[in-house]
């Protein structure tokens, strides 16, 4: 009897159960990733995606009824099934990106940013129009929203540019980055998409502050931003309609009022899964106003839990960056998590009627293929830039800005 062959087969079939397979001595790509990745952050993101699936399942019947026109063209859980498919496509991207070295991600992000800016320029010309906005390019098999994919690539590209200032103070990096942001703002506002314009500008200013820009200049940029909003109100029709509706109850204010009534209808503990009725009156129950659906069916307690989870993710990343030594990594990770948290904050603010409607999704909660894939790319980048060598000792108090490898 060939005992060696049997033993070999037993070892092969039980290798996955070997407790030392992903031990600290494992130097394979997966082994290094397992020990370097922020598993707490990864768990919180998985929790958010799981809760998002539950929320989409709750909102799907209302969305299916609205977009089927009362026919049986859409099953009640049509959007829930599609969301599962999009998650199945997106999550492998997130994990694969999180395994890549920082220098490779920097190069890919620069290429991605250039490609997305070029795509943004094409949107007003050949883009598909949905609900009065032209933000998507039709690829045949689906629609592609360049502004969503540009967001993470923009952050990494800006982080790389701003980190160059540490090596050569004479480089006009701040001014050049401002020109790029202005170009993106013009292209995005043509769609029109005022909400994304605010996100790009706010994230850029936050990254400038982290990079050490003079406080007076930062205050000047803040004032310029307020002036820009005022000018948008007078000369940009979309901003005028949204702000009038929010401040004076004129124009399209029905959406935010209806969202607020839906959110509070469930009280503290909600009406129960599938028991909500006000959600059928929401214009976008599975995307823009899914936070209100959560409130109606699962209660204000669930809304607070979701908000706390977003806050915990932002806090986790920012605290973790306190002992990071690479200025490039600090700017990249901080920019990505600020962008993530700001988008969530704006969506929730619209749903509780403290901000005008902006057509912005709730990250990892709202339904959407482009949104899910773009967010997975962004969080894959975030996981990559927060990876830590478990054997590397860093000072928890001193952040080193000069003399490091910016592509680290």
TrEMBL record:
Q: Which residues form the signal peptide?
A: none
Q: Keywords of this protein's UniProt record, alphabetized? A: Cell cycle, Cell division, Cell shape, Glycosyltransferase, Membrane, Peptidoglycan synthesis, Transferase, Transmembrane, Transmembrane helix
Extract one GO BP annotation from the record.
Answer: cell division
Q: What is its EC number?
A: 2.4.99.28
Gene Ontology molecular function: any one: peptidoglycan glycosyltransferase activity
The yes or no answer to whether the keyword Isomerase is present is no
Against Pfam families, the record matches this protein to:
FTSW_RODA_SPOVE
List, alphabetically, the GO terms of the cellular component aspect: cell division site; plasma membrane
InterPro entries, sorted: FtsW/RodA
* Compartments in which it is found: Membrane
Where does the source fall among the domains of life? Bacteria
Describe its membrane topology: Multi-pass membrane protein
List all membrane-crossing ranges. 40-59, 79-97, 109-128, 148-164, 171-188, 194-211, 218-236, 298-319, 328-352, 364-385
Q: Which reaction does it catalyse?
A: [GlcNAc-(1->4)-Mur2Ac(oyl-L-Ala-gamma-D-Glu-L-Lys-D-Ala-D-Ala)](n)-di-trans,octa-cis-undecaprenyl diphosphate + beta-D-GlcNAc-(1->4)-Mur2Ac(oyl-L-Ala-gamma-D-Glu-L-Lys-D-Ala-D-Ala)-di-trans,octa-cis-undecaprenyl diphosphate = [GlcNAc-(1->4)-Mur2Ac(oyl-L-Ala-gamma-D-Glu-L-Lys-D-Ala-D-Ala)](n+1)-di-trans,octa-cis-undecaprenyl diphosphate + di-trans,octa-cis-undecaprenyl diphosphate + H(+)
UniProt record similarity statement: Belongs to the SEDS family. FtsW subfamily.
The name this protein goes by in its record: Probable peptidoglycan glycosyltransferase FtsW
Species per Swiss-Prot/TrEMBL record: Sphingomonas xanthus
């Amino acid at each position: 009897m060939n005992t060696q062959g049997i033993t070999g087969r037993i070892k092969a079939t039980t290798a996955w159960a070997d407790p030392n397979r992903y031990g600290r001595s494992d130097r394979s790509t997966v082994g290094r990733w397992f020990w370097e990745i922020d598993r707490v952050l990864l768990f919180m993101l998985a929790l958010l995606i799981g809760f998002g699936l539950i929320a989409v399942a709750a909102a799907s019947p209302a969305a299916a009824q609205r977009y089927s026109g009362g026919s049986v063209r859409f099953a009640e859980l049509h959007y829930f099934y599609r969301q599962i498919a999009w998650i199945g496509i997106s999550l492998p991207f997130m994990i694969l990106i999180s395994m890549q070295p920082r220098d490779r991600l920097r190069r890919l992000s620069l290429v991605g940013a250039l490609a997305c800016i070029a795509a943004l320029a094409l949107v007003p010309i050949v883009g598909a129009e949905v609900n009065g906005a032209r933000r998507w390019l039709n690829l045949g098999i689906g629609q592609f929203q360049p502004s969503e994919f540009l967001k993470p690539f923009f952050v990494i590209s800006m982080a790389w540019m701003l980190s160059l200032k540490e090596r050569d103070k004479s480089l006009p990096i701040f001014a050049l980055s401002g020109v790029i942001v202005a170009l993106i703002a013009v292209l995005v506002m043509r769609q029109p998409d005022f909400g994304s314009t605010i996100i790009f500008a706010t994230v850029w200013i936050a990254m400038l502050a982290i990079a050490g820009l003079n406080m007076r200049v930062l205050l000047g940029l803040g004032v310029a931003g307020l002036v820009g909003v005022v000018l948008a109100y007078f000369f940009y029709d979309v901003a005028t309609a949204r702000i009038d509706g929010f401040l004076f109850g004129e124009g399209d204010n029905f959406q935010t009022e209806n969202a607020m009534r839906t959110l509070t209808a469930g009280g503290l503990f909600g009406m129960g899964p599938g028991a909500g009725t006000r959600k059928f009156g929401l214009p976008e129950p599975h995307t823009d106003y899914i936070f209100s659906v959560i409130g109606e069916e699962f209660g204000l307690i669930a809304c607070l839990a979701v908000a706390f989870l977003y806050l915990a993710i932002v806090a986790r990343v920012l605290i973790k960056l306190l002992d990071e030594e690479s200025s490039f990594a600090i700017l990249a990770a901080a920019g990505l998590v600020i962008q993530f948290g700001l988008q969530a904050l704006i969506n929730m603010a619209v749903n509780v009627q403290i901000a005008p409607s902006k057509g912005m999704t709730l990250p990892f909660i709202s339904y959407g293929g482009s949104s899910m894939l773009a967010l997975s790319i962004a969080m894959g980048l975030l996981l990559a830039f927060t990876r830590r060598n478990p054997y590397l000792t860093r000072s928890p108090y001193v952040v080193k800005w000069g003399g490091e490898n910016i592509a680290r």
